[in-house]
Amino acid sequence: MDIAFNAEELAFRDDVREFLATKLPREIQERTRIAPSYVPSDYTRRWQNILYRQGWGAPNWPVDLGGTGWNAMQKYIYDAEYQAADCPRQSPFGISMVGPVICAFGTDAQKEHHLGPIIRGEKQWCQGYSEPGSGSDLASLVTRAIPDGDDYVVNGSKIWTSHAHHADWIFCLVRTNTEVKKQEGISFLLMDMTTPGITVKPIISMDGHHYLNEVFFDDVHVPISNRIGEENKGWTYAKFLLGHERTGIAGVGKSKRKVERLKQIAGIERADGGSVLEKDSFRSRLSEAEVALQAVEFTQLRILAQERAGKPPGPEASTLKIGGTQVEQSLNELMIEAIGHYAAPYPADELDPERNEPPIGPDYTIGLMQERLLRRAATIYGGSNEIQRGIIAKAVLEM
Ligand SMILES: Cc1cc2nc3c(=O)[nH]c(=O)nc-3n(C[C@H](O)[C@H](O)[C@H](O)COP(=O)(O)OP(=O)(O)OC[C@H]3O[C@@H](n4cnc5c(N)ncnc54)[C@H](O)[C@@H]3O)c2cc1C
Question: Which end of the chain is more exposed for a tag (fewer CB within 10 A), N or C?
Answer without folding.
Answer: C
